[in-house]
Amino acid sequence: MRKFKTESKKLLDLMINSIYTNKEIFLRELISNASDAVDKLNFKSLTDNDVDIDSADLAIRVSFDKDNRTLTISDNGIGMTAEELEKNLGTIAHSGSQEFKTENAESQGNDVDIIGQFGVGFYSAFMVASRVRVVSRAFGSDEANMWESDGLEGYTIEPAERATHGTDVILTIREDEGGEDGEGFDAYLSEWGLKNLIKQYSNYVRYPIQMMVTKHRQKPTPVDADENYQPEWEDYQELDTVNSMTPIWKKRASEVEQKDYNEFYKSTFHDFEDPARTISFHAEGTLEYDALLFIPGRAPFDLYSKDYEKGLSLYSSNVLIMEKCADLLPDYFNFVRGVVDSADVSLNISRETLQQNRQLRAIAKRVEKKISSDLEDMRDNDREAYEKFFENFGRGLKYGIYSSYGMKADELADLLLLYSAKEQKMVTLAEYAKAMPADQKAIYYASGDSRERLSKMPVVTGVLARGYDVLLLTADVDEFTFQAMHSYKAQGLPKVYEDDAAREAAEKAVADGAEPETEDRTLELKNVATGDLDLATEDEKKDAEEATKENESLFTAMKDALGDKVEKVAVSARLTDAPACITTEGPLSLEMERVLRRDPSAEAEGMPKSQRVLELNAKHPVFKKLVSANEAGDAEKIKLYAGLLYDQALLVEGILPEDPVAFAASVCELM
Ligand SMILES: Nc1ncnc2c1ncn2[C@@H]1O[C@H](COP(=O)(O)OP(=O)(O)OP(=O)(O)O)[C@@H](O)[C@H]1O
Q: Is the CB of 166 under 6 A from ligand 1?
């Protein structure tokens, strides 16, 4: 017996016990070796006239013998001589494939897709096998040899028999340890287990991977069968190609029909609906790769659960490296499914991940750009589909802005759709800004749990009455997103001229045929129910100031009656028809307070409270009643009215009075 070199022994031990996290990948490694061997012979036949083979015959075969616990991976590739067996399999970390690649680097072109590079993959067989035999006959030689080892001390090489060129790798599979934590080795001796592994890791290997599979058929009806004959069925075995070979992402988009993409999507990503969009591209440069991405037509049920795993499948030379490579997708595009395939990425030795995150980052950046521009295209050219997309996945985009504290707003803000109270449909922020009257200075929004209710709220109707649109936000995350964004940079708005002379000059220029001037403007996002909207005209402001001055004692009395429910009571500059409304000062709006309160831990942690203001409409008859009660010194009435106005203003916002019984009693008392 020849002994493994000492270093090799250590390495072998490392291989078997630590390099791989997943034992099942041994099959991927052995099939990749077989594919390399076939590829090398194919390459030779293309470059050497003496090598006469029919490339249609090149194939890999997987078979098993349950009774003897053997699994065999055969190929009719280039094979190995005794010396090559010694060099390639006797020395760990010697890669004949890497050598082949280097030797043929110049003439190689696109005709080969050699997978091997480290010279270790073969030994992963010992993770599942107690003994490995390799029977090989080099192309052009009439001798065969067998390499054999138990993966511990050493190996033997002896003459053997093989009818034609190629290699059989015969594994004696370890005994199954059974039980829940057992190794499940028996799966490597079963048709479905092997088929699944081939499909999972080696589906796109360029050469057919054949296996005898069991099929079911109806037996022919006997000639003498009468009407009582019951059809009989039988199992039979047939050699089948298990892998689908050509990776669809390597084909040009123009060569593939959408229905084929749809089929691929559905079968690969287990969806029953067609994807909403298919994005395929080929990147060239320092890092060459193909990518095929899908935007699903519906949200998977677990998208917003913590079990949901984002990621794209990463392939290298048609072999699966990682099922879900999370680094390839930002969180807000976590719904995208697809594949990235690159022969250029530097794999780590177990071929389970990459050595360099820099490469992943470069791919991820490009992938993100492609997704964004595809979404923009859908938004601009197929609004109906985009609305559906946004319904499914918009929450993630909003959350992306919020969780990055607005840093991702530049990338994501234009992908948002929001409901316009004026247009009564979903609009983008750019569309909102474009439709604004020239004097509008901010983007207005209201936030609550139903569009219906919001559109009737006095703070909303007040702003609408001034001719300004209001966005009605109804999702939990909406207002948090808007606060994180703070503002939106609208591009190409009609220029606003501060002084008349400049405006007239510009108008004249346009009349003379010049293009109207445009400008970019940063618009603050303002909640119509918080702070000062600064919408009142000079006259309105003056009226409000006067009413405030004249009724100071009334406001003090009402504030005293309401206690710490409100920060203050004041004259409103935003109400038109309603007698009163609740607004807030500071960053926390009523709606945000309500969303935060839904978190059960909020109360215990000392929930921040919004600073509420009871605003009164000085033009409303109710106000006159308050004034006369105050003049009459009727403190009881002021208290009753203050409480009622406060509760009903909250009711309009969809917030129940803190003490509904007291509220009902007050209404009765008034009646
Ligand atoms: N079926 C085969 N036919 C011909 N040569 C083979 C076969 N399997 C392995 N070899 C040779 O043995 C060498 C070592 O194989 P091994 O799987 O350990 O490494 P590799 O494929 O070169 O690299 P990697 O570790 O990246 O898979 C290969 O480079 C190849 O030259």
A: no
CA–CA separation, 648 and 619 (whole Å): 18
CATH of 538-670 among 3.40.1350.10, 1.20.120.790, 3.30.230.10, 3.40.50.10580: 1.20.120.790
Q: What are the domain boundaries of the chain?
A: 2-214, 248-383, 417-527, 538-670
Distance CA 654, CA 595 (A): 13
Task: Please tell us whether the domain made up of 2-214 is placed in CATH 2.40.50.140.
Answer: no
**pLDDT of 426-454, one tens digit each?**
999 999 999 999 889 999 999 988 899 89
Q: Which residues contact 26 (CB under 8 A, 6 or more apart)?
A: 20, 124, 125, 127, 128, 129
Total residues belonging to the chain:
671
Token code pair at residue 463: 């702003």
Q: Whose CA is nearest to atom 12 of ligand 1?
A: 88
Angle between helices 660-670 and 635-652 (to 10 degrees): 120
User: Given this model, what pLDDT does residue 572 score?
Assistant: 87
How does pLDDT run across 577-600, given as a tens digit for each residue?
Answer: 889 998 998 888 888 888 887 776
CATH class of the domain at 248-383: alpha beta
SS3 476: coil
Total-model pTM:
0.79
Give the pair of three-digit tokens for residue 499. Answer: 């002084």
Distance 265 CA to ligand 1 centre (A): 33
116 is in an annotated binding site: no
- Of 80-89, 118-127, 372-381, minimum mean pLDDT range: 118-127
CA of 177 to the centre of ligand 1 (A): 29
Helix/strand/coil for 55: helix
Is CATH 3.40.50.11260 the classification given to domain 417-527? yes
- Sequence letter at residue 507: E
Q: What is the pLDDT of residue 180?
A: 57
- Test site for ligand 1: of 88, 124, 135, 316, most ligand atoms within 8 A of the Cβ: 88
As a whole number, mean pLDDT of residues 468-493 equals 94
Ligand 1 mean position to 89 CA, how many Å? Answer: 8
Say if ligand 1 is within 6 A of residue 120 CB: yes
Taking CA 598 as the corner, what is the angle to CA 529 and CA 403, rounded to the nearest 5 degrees? 75
293: left (phi over 0), alpha (psi -120 to 50) or beta: beta
State the ipTM, two decimals: 0.98
